[in-house]
Design goal:
heterodimer, A: mainly alpha, Helix Hairpins, 3 helices, 79% helix, B: mainly alpha, two-stranded antiparallel sheet, 26 helices, 72% helix
Chain lengths: 99, 664
């Protein structure tokens, strides 16, 4: 079957997502990278469902639903940040730091 | 079992009832008639208890069983092999104590009605007094050591409450605390003794302990010696013997009837009762017997010397009490249990009379000074003198008690004191050390006769020093106070009759009465016997010494030369040492109290508490947490990217661990 290639693609996608989150600064891009990681995981679920039963496919729907909700909240936060700072670059965002 | 004797729970229950009722009344706002009610309850329960006691006594005398009758009420402390019941035991010794406590107690309650009449804490006073009687009865009736210990602690509590009865004055509150703390030291000994008794005999019931003791313990061995010495440590606290006696003179801060009841007639004799109760154990430990008799003899003489130079009438009597308690310990330490208990009883009569008499004097003095708005000391003998004309009844009755305590025949004190001295002398035949105790006792008798005559001379004879205006107001106390004095006078005079020795063709009734309690211990002691001739010589010496003391005081002391306390010069030389009680309080203060306070303040407080605990542990924990936070704050950059990076590194590490473990 196509299990090994599917898992390999999934791993590549996930690593790309992680790398994007780590090294990009634009909040929108980081957000997209997070979505990329979620979809990499989805791919793994679907691929493994071939071997281990339908549970993985069901879980994909859960992930997609949560991702949609998260997208709504995340984009709203980014909008709010933009209004406040006139920027979506996370480099300038260090409000958590003391002083 | 006899139904009358089974009423033994009633006397303590009556006293407890009195406490509850009077205790409730003490919280009620005073209203007219309340005092009458308090008096009726307070003295009534005691009189009723005395009546019941008489009935029990006569019923028991009819049975006269050899073994004590034990009444178990409920299982109190059932723990493994320790099965303790709350139980009372009636035997000959307990009954003698029961009669003394309720009998003398009743008279003192009656006296209190007059003495405390104008006190705002009237109901509280009677509540405490009833509570005291309850605990005292638990003490003497308890059938095992712990029940006795409950009474032992309870009377200590009441003693504390009543010494500090007028607690608004610092000195009185301090005296109460001193008594309590000194007693705690003794109680520690009592408890250790109980632990050893349980460990070695497996029981704490008197019956079981005393029946197992001859087999479970080695006579003269370390265990029984340790038990008895620790018990005696308890006695030195409760019965005011060297080295723990210093609380008793200060205890005179309480109302005078309290001094009569608690600090002369009953509570302070608890130690003597304890030794008498455990006479078998003491008979098995000759070293302890010698310690008891030796401490008693030394205390007797030591306290008598201090009494020679006290001016406060109650303090003279307080030291006299310590001295007489020393006599009792000579008796019980010698193994002459009957003699010790006999002296306990006669002492309860004449010392209660002396204290109540002094109460009557103080009452008169206080009223005289109150009427003239004077602030002189109503207890200082230098302010008295010549009271015989104003208080003739008190004068006559106190002379009876004085002659009794001095040992003039045929008053009660003569018989009991003579019996102790004779027993000590007879024991000297077996152990020569006792000749020394006998000599100390004889010296004490001389001093006793001297200081008691001195007290009577300065109080009742010679010219009056109260002050010209105050003198008009001196008068005899009401009959509710003089009546009990009269009864005690009769008892002081005739109380010796219950144990007239065979030497005078008496029946030695008390001796035979107590035989079931004492015979087991007496069998272990060396048998001593004095010939009739020797006994007569001893009696002659004792009486001669007493007469010498009285006559000496009469000749040497000049009440005419005394001046009122306010203008009296300080004594010089040896008299000054005696006046200051051999500086024992000061020595204790320097050797024990100050080092202890220093240790507590400089080491325990400033070092251990302030530095180690407060600064080190408590503030140290806060400082440590702060330092940790300060050291780690560089991690918190506020950059989300950094957090994510750390997070990813962490996940990778965990993955690596998980895969690595799975692979191995």
């Amino acid at each position: 079957m196509l299990l090994s290639p599917a898992l390999a693609i999934s791993a590549v996608l996930f690593t790309l997502g992680v790398a994007g989150v780590l090294f990009r600064r634009n909040a929108i891009v980081i957000f997209m990278c997070v979505e990329l990681m979620l979809n990499a995981v989805n791919l793994t679920f679907v691929a493994l469902a071939q071997e281990l039963g339908v549970g993985g496919q069901v879980f994909v729907f859960f992930v997609m639903a949560v991702a949609a909700a998260e997208a709504a909240v995340g984009l709203a936060i980014i909008l709010a940040v933009y209004r406040h700072k006139h920027s979506v670059s996370l480099q300038n965002m260090n409000l958590l730091k003391d002083g | 079992m006899d139904t009358t004797v089974a009423l033994i729970w009633l006397p303590p229950a009556l006293a407890l009832l009195g406490f509850v009722l009077n205790g409730t009344l003490a919280f009620v706002r005073p209203r007219p008639g309340a005092k009458t009610l308090v008096s009726i309850i307070g003295a009534g329960v005691l009189l009723a208890a005395f009546g019941v006691s008489v009935a029990i006594f006569s019923a028991f005398a009819g049975l006269h069983p050899d073994a004590p009758l034990v009444f178990r009420y409920w299982s109190w402390i059932p723990v493994g092999t320790l099965q303790l019941d709350f139980a009372f035991q009636v035997d000959q010794l307990a009954l003698v104590m029961l009669m003394v406590v309720t009998g003398v107690g009743s008279l003192i309650h009656l006296f209190s009605i007059g003495y405390m009449k104008d006190d705002p804490g009237y109901a509280r006073y009677f509540a405490y007094l009833n509570l005291f009687v309850f605990f005292m009865l638990v003490l003497v009736l308890g059938a095992n050591f712990p029940v006795m210990f409950v009474g032992w602690e309870g009377v200590g509590l009441c003693s504390y409450l009543l010494i500090g009865f007028w607690f608004s004055e610092q000195a009185n509150a301090d005296a109460g605390r001193k008594a309590f703390i000194m007693n705690r030291i003794g109680d520690f000994g009592f408890m250790v003794a109980m632990f050893i008794i349980f460990w070695s005999t497996g029981s704490l019931d008197f019956e079981t302990v005393f029946s197992h003791a001859p087999t479970a313990l080695v006579a003269g061995g370390t265990t029984v010696t340790a038990i008895t010495l620790f018990l005696f440590l308890g006695c030195t606290g409760k019965s005011a013997q060297i080295p723990l006696y210093t609380w008793l003179p200060d205890a005179m801060a309480g109302p005078t009837p309290v001094s009569a009841l608690i600090h002369a007639a009953t509570m302070v004799t608890a130690g003597v009762y304890l030794v008498a109760r455990c006479n078998l154990l003491f008979a098995m430990a000759p070293i302890s017997g010698a310690v008891v008799a030796g401490v008693g003899a030394l205390t007797a003489l030591f306290a008598a010397t201090i009494a020679l130079k006290q001016w406060d009438i109650k303090r003279v009597l307080a030291y006299s009490t310590i001295s007489q308690l020393g006599y009792m310990f000579v008796g019980v330490g010698t193994g002459a249990i009957t003699a010790g208990v006999f002296h306990l009883m006669t002492h309860a009569f004449f010392k209660a009379l002396l204290f109540l008499g002094s109460g009557s004097v103080i009452y008169a003095m206080h009223h005289a000074y109150h009427a003239t708005h004077s602030h002189e000391d109503a207890q200082d003998m230098r302010n008295m003198g010549g009271l015989r004309r104003h208080l003739p009844w008190t004068w006559a009755l106190m002379w009876i008690a004085t002659l009794a305590i001095a040992g003039i025949p045929p008053l009660s004190g003569f018989f009991s004191k003579d019996e102790i001295l004779a027993a000590a002398f007879a024991h000297g035949g077996a152990q020569p050390l006792w000749f020394g105790f006998w000599a100390l006792g004889l010296g004490t008798a001389l001093l006793t006769a001297f200081y008691m005559t001195r007290m009577m001379l300065y109080t009742f004879h010679g010219p009056n020093r109260t002050g010209d205006t105050a003198r008009e107001h001196l008068h005899e106390a009401p009959w509710i106070m003089t009546g009990p004095l009269l009864l005690l006078g009769v008892l002081s005079a005739a109380g010796g009759l219950i144990n007239v020795p065979e030497l005078y063709h008496g029946s030695a009734w008390l001796h035979h009465w107590l035989e079931p309690v004492t015979e087991q211990g007496a069998a272990l002691l060396p048998q001593t016997h004095l010939s009739q001739g020797t006994e007569w010589v001893l009696v002659g010496i004792a009486v001669a010494v007493a007469v010498l003391g009285i006559a000496g005081a009469w000749r040497l002391l000049k009440p005419e030369s005394l001046v009122p306390a306010a203008t009296s010069p300080e004594e010089r030389g040896f008299a000054r040492i005696l006046r200051h009680k051999w500086y024992v309080d000061e020595i204790y203060d320097a050797l024990i109290v100050r080092p202890l306070v220093w240790l507590s303040r400089e080491v325990l407080w400033k070092r251990v508490d302030q530095r180690a605990i407060d600064s080190g542990v408590v503030n140290g924990a806060a400082r440590g947490a702060r330092a940790l936070g300060w050291a780690n704050r560089w991690l918190q950059t506020g950059q989300v990217g950094v957090y994510v990076a750390v997070f990813v590194v962490g996940v990778l590490l965990l993955l690596w661990r998980a895969i690595g473990r799975g692979g191995s």
